[in-house]
Amino acid sequence: MSDKNSPAIEQIITILNNSPTAIYVSAIDNYELLYINEKARDILASNSTGQERTCYEAAGFTQPCSFCQTSKMSRDKFLVREFQLPIDSSIYQLSGKIIDWDGREAHIEYITDITERKKEENKSKAVKEELQTTFSCIPCGLCVYKFENGKISPLFHNPAFYGIMGYSKEHIKEIENDTSFLGVHPDDLPVLQSKIQDAILKGGLVQYIYRVWNDNKNEYRWIRLDGSVETQADNTKFLYGVYSDVNKRVLLEQELTAAKDKMQDIINAIPGGVAIYKVSDIFETIYFSDGVPELSGYTVEEYHELIKEDAAKMTYYEDTEMVVSNIQEAIKNHTVTEFDFRKQHRDGHIVWVHVQAKQIGEEDGCPLIHCVFHNISNLKETQLELDHLVNSIPGGIASYRIEDGQFIPIFFSDGIVALSGHTRKELEEITKNNALEVIYEADKKRVSDEAVSALKSGRVLDISYRVHHKDGSLVWIHLNGRRMGPLSDSSRFYAVITGMSSETRLFQSIANETADGIYVISKDTYELFYTNESKNLFLKDNITIGEKCYKALFGKSAPCEFCTLKSHKPDNSEHDMLVDGTDKFYSTRFHETDWNGISAYVKYVRDVTEETKIKFEKERLSMYFQSVVENLPGGITVIRYESDNSLIPEYISEGFASMCHMTVEEVENVYKNDIFASFHSDDSDNIKNKVLDSINSGNSHCELTGRLKLKDGGYIWVKSTISLIHSSDGVKRLYTVHTDISKSV
């Protein structure tokens, strides 16, 4: 090193001598050591003699270092590399660049001892490799962080961590060097940071579910962190974290919560609601929806006070015993029970309720009963009116479900029961598997064949047959019915069934024989050869075999004008015969035979007067029931729904027209363009929207109330009960019963 330096260099040397960093300067051309401070001498002390003239001699070498990087240096930036002393394995970081030193081109080196840092890095690397080997196959994300000097530094992430977090390659590099809560949702970040800081300070556990932006899926996903902080012997703190992808679970929980809220809203909207009772010696209410107190007109708050007592006492007193008995029976047999009962409204009127109840578990050793209630007051009122109307029909009506060719009864009115003299329970037992079982054996095949044919074709089945009466006799029954809807594996069949008078029953019992009267008459001379009457048709006490038939039977002197022997062929085909001067109707048939060698006709006559009268009576009843429908209080309308949301009137009853103080034609003129035109302007839009909403949502029933305009301009309050029927041709029709409720509004 030169002892003579310029003042400027001397000033620089003074500064460098006081630097905490080891520094030396050497010439580029001959490696001459131009300057070395005390820090550098300390590092090279073990090799230095104090007489070194070159940089490589100061480093303990006898010739230029083989790893010398001077040729790669520049004046613009430092060339940084590492150097390990052979003698003690110390590691140094060298940072060198080219400078001018007192007129000579030289390079300056800054030497930093990084031995400890490298040891720490190697240790950290070893830990990472060990963790990587240990946890690389674990499906959950595992991470180790080091907390030092207020900073959290990542030490290890297993492969699953990156898969769960979904970081991009750029972000992976970022999180491997720094923990900056990358991608955490802004709403979740403050809580996450707070929880981690608390865990670091207190040395406890941390658990939190939060959202992280997933680069691969381009969305926020829910992640769960389970972590713990451990303090090492040197007071270094390590945070161990386990990350789990709980996105599906959280979303499912959110969906379930939303569904639960929605279900609660639905339950509360049930006209009747849901309740759970604990059954001991009393019915203790555990839960009830909003609809339950509404049944009896109480608020939810009021009902909370009422249910502190036995809930069974809140039923109508005449039904309480039945309700308790049915529930106890369902508990005993582990079955579902359904029945109707009454509750008394707070204003005094009766509310009909249908309940479906089932045990769902136990509490304190007592059964828990889940009950679903429906307010059926309107339905019950309509049902009672319908039952009265149905049971007024001579005979009755029945509906059947067709399964495997069997007619399974669904419903039959009281009149059906009366026809055979059985009780309802007895008839249900007889017909439970097939309604045809009640038919007289001789008629069963005929009726069965006709019924199956009508079922397949969809035509009307009009047939008479005999059934066993409870008293042992046979009674004749007439059935008129048809299949409703398309043919399917479970078609429905509806029938009107009528009985016959005692006289008609007698007639039918005699008709079991060949005919009421049998007459053998000469083909050429009208001579009466033989007579046999099971009923007193034409024979007189003084009748004589051998006389002319017209004289013996009718007292005439010439062939009868109504005789069918000449007007019809002897082909045994039945045809009508009307006897002059009587109100009798006869059916007759005849064929040609040989009567003891003489050509003759065998004529069979049946008195069909009763059958004809029954036919007329049936037609009269049909007209009567049509009149009943036409004149129901309030009346009926049938509206066809078109795909363009238009509603076309198809039928308007006389009763409805009368309720509007109009004729049917006048009502049709009002309705033909807009069926809502006759409703009050404040009601029409609401009613129209409810009707269309009900149709579009597929509801089969809807009930509306509004003011209906009369012919004179006045209004009445009308309740309209609508049933939506889907016809087999795909057309939707609204069958509506209108009732004037002005007096009750």
Describe the protein.
By secondary structure, this protein is an alpha+beta fold. It has six domains: 7-113, Beta-Lactamase, CATH 3.30.450; 117-250, Beta-Lactamase; 270-375, Beta-Lactamase, CATH 3.30.450.20; 381-499, PAS domain (Beta-Lactamase), CATH 3.30.450.20; 511-611, Beta-Lactamase; 631-744, Beta-Lactamase (2-Layer Sandwich). The strands form six sheets. A five-stranded antiparallel beta sheet has the order 2-1-5-4-3. Strands 7-6-10-9-8 form a five-stranded antiparallel beta sheet, with helices on both faces. Strands 12-11-15-14-13 form a five-stranded antiparallel beta sheet. A hairpin with a 2-residue loop joins strand 24 and strand 25. The radius of gyration is 53 Å and the shape is elongated. The model is unreliable at 502-513 (pLDDT under 50).
Ordered list of secondary-structure elements with their pairings:
Layout: H1 7-17, E1 22-27, E2 33-36, H2 38-43, H3 55-58, E3 79-84, E4 91-101, E5 104-113, H4 115-135, E6 141-148, E7 151-157, H5 159-165, H6 169-177, H7 189-202, E8 205-214, E9 219-231, E10 237-245, H8 247-269, E11 272-279, E12 283-288, H9 291-295, H10 300-306, H11 320-333, E13 337-344, E14 350-363, E15 366-375, H12 377-391, E16 396-403, E17 406-412, H13 414-420, H14 424-431, H15 441-457, E18 461-468, E19 474-484, E20 492-498, H16 502-510, E21 517-522, E22 528-533, H17 549-554, E23 575-577, E24 586-595, E25 598-607, H18 609-630, E26 636-641, E27 647-652, H19 654-659, H20 664-671, H21 681-697, E28 701-709, E29 715-726, E30 732-740
Antiparallel strand pairs: 1-2, 1-5, 3-4, 4-5, 6-7, 6-10, 8-9, 9-10, 11-12, 11-15, 13-14, 14-15, 16-17, 16-20, 18-19, 19-20, 21-22, 21-25, 23-24, 24-25, 26-27, 26-30, 28-29, 29-30
